[in-house]
Design brief:
It is built from 1 helix and 11 strands; from the N terminus they run βββββββββαββ. By secondary structure, the chain is mostly beta strands. It is globular and about 45 Å long.
Length: 129
């Protein structure tokens, strides 16, 4: 299994930028499909972005397209989320998540959604207006 630790959150004014990092340990990082999620107060957790094992494929929720960029460095065992032009509605706790290759393959084969297995503790992002 893999352990995940996020960092990089903070307070920023609207229009500003933040870069989140997620350090992974405990297993071969390149064997994990990675994602970022967020949860705002009083709301359900929502998908933000995902990245494939080699980093070649990415996906984003519509509300962050063109503003956020997910990337990974398999040599450094880390995944990143660069957030630009931040808006107050981006305020949330941001979580890093991992899905093993075996579980990813089952999800793809069955057509079911990705159920990420491992989660970090989260990092707070607050965007002031």
């Amino acid at each position: 299994q893999v352990q995940l630790v996020e960092s990089g959150g903070g307070l920023v004014q609207a229009g500003g930028s933040l870069s989140l990092s997620c350090a992974a340990s405990g297993d071969t990082f390149s064997n994990y499909f990675m994602g970022w999620f967020r949860q705002a107060p009083g709301k359900e957790r929502e998908f933000v972005a995902s990245i494939s094992f080699s980093g070649g494929d990415t996906d984003y929720v519509d509300s962050v397209k063109g503003r956020f960029t997910i990337s990974r460095d398999n040599d450094q065992n880390a995944v990143y989320l660069q957030m630009n032009n931040l808006k107050p509605e981006d305020t949330a706790i941001y979580y890093c998540a991992a899905l093993s290759a075996s579980r990813w393959a089952v999800a793809v084969t069955s057509g079911s959604g990705y159920e990420f297995e491992y989660w970090g503790q989260g990092t707070q992002v607050t965007v002031s207006s």
